[in-house]
Amino acid sequence: MKLKYVALFTALVSSAGAIAQSAPLTIAHPSQFDQLTQPAAGVNMPESYVKAIAQQAYLWGWPMVNQFNRRATITKAPYPALNGGMVPVAPMGQLSMLTDYIKPEETFVTCPNQDVVYGLGFFELDKDPIVIQVPDFGDRFWVYAIYDARTNQIGNVGKPYGTKPGFYLLVGPDWKGETPKGFNGVIHSSTEMANVIPRIQMNDTAEDRMAIQAPIKEVMTYPLREFNGKMKSYEYSKIPSIGDKPDASAGETKWVVPETFFDQFANVLDKVPPLPGEEAMYAQFRHLVEAGKQDPQVRKWMDEAAVETDKTTIAEFFKWKNNGVPAGNGWNRSKNNAQFGVDYFNRTGTAKSNMFDNKPDETQYFYTDNDAANSQLSGEHDYTVTFPKGGIPPVKGFWSLTLYNSKHLFSPNELNRYSLGTKNKDLKYNSDGSLTLYISKTNPGGDKVNNWLPSPDGTFSLYIRAYWGEKPIIDGSWQPPKIELIK
Prior knowledge:
Layout: H1 2-21, H2 30-37, H3 47-74, E1 81-83, E2 87-89, E3 95-97, E4 116-124, E5 130-134, E6 142-148, E7 166-171, E8 185-188, E9 193-201, H4 206-211, H5 213-216, E10 221-223, E11 241-242, H6 261-271, H7 279-294, H8 296-316, E12 325-328, E13 331-333, H9 344-353, E14 363-368, E15 383-387, E16 395-405, E17 419-421, E18 435-440, E19 452-454, E20 460-469, H10 471-475, E21 483-485
Parallel strand pairs: 1-11, 7-8, 18-19
Antiparallel strand pairs: 1-2, 3-4, 4-9, 5-7, 5-10, 6-9, 12-13, 13-14, 14-20, 15-18, 15-21, 16-17, 16-20
Helix pairs in contact: 3-6, 3-8, 3-9, 6-7, 7-8
């Protein structure tokens, strides 16, 4: 199965690249070429062809339909709030902030972390340029990850870039002009759809929970028409809870429904301009969508292809061995995260398994479902993860090891602990300077408790984050440690 979808994505990437490389060729009559590259109208398409193109469309468009559906849901909030008391939601153009780590019962996104305080906001940049406020975070690590519809990050906003406190303007692809007075810079989005997820590092101490509250109040976005040159603030600690609590047992909210995918896919084609070399692919997809509108049988085949692809290829992306590239000792690491270009394989894989990665120069991710013997991690067993002396992830920001259940979410445990790393100031190092973390369902007791990650019933996975990595993280020379089975 893996070979099948690797081949499919390779073909898509190669096709886009080949078209892009053909641009320098001399074409006498461009209009004639345009006609030749458009699918013929009125053709009788067989089932096999319809399903082949529909499968490609589903694989390619899955992350973007996902993005647009999240925006449509999140921006229904009438004011900044917490959906189900857990996830920040806000009207279009605004954002909402947590004031502590995200709650373990959330299902908005897979692979959340409990190292940062999150925020979330979505925008329509063809309607309003957006003011982004950056308060003074002092020495604290922070980034504002701003994404376009393709789930690529746009702009460089955060501590790794030396971003200064103040105001920044986020604009759409059609915006033209000089940097307005009072702004430190302008961030250009390639699509009208954009969203921002602030990540502000917080230590797991009562003192830091108090210290972070002041800057959090000034993390805000709003339309340019509301800008007055003064830093606004919002009391996020008092925002209400709206909506129902999610059912964590069902996994992540189903943002892409295969039976309705092609009702939403045309919007993606209209709202997301093609990259160079994608024009012919867009033409094929538009032709398919139009044929589906005119012929119920064609639409039925399209939906069948979407359902089948969701059950097979998309489901396979949830396995960590199918994400990124090998990192050593049985781990994989992220590749092209949030800078996917025409790497459709890793874009769709990331959207399925761990949506909203940071860029490689901000964060590298290492993940695995298996121990050092390549056996599935399970709550039936106990494990250790030992970083040798000087071998913890080399970072300028922070690092963490997080445990996720089989749905890439948290399973509540007696310590309410889901990760260990920089934020924990009471980790116990071994006498030789190494650091051993204990993964087990039962409490290991004694001085091991500070280094214990409780595991759930059933299978689980482990995930290392390295924020603002040093050179060995960036170039791939650092390897995660082996996960050793104890019993």
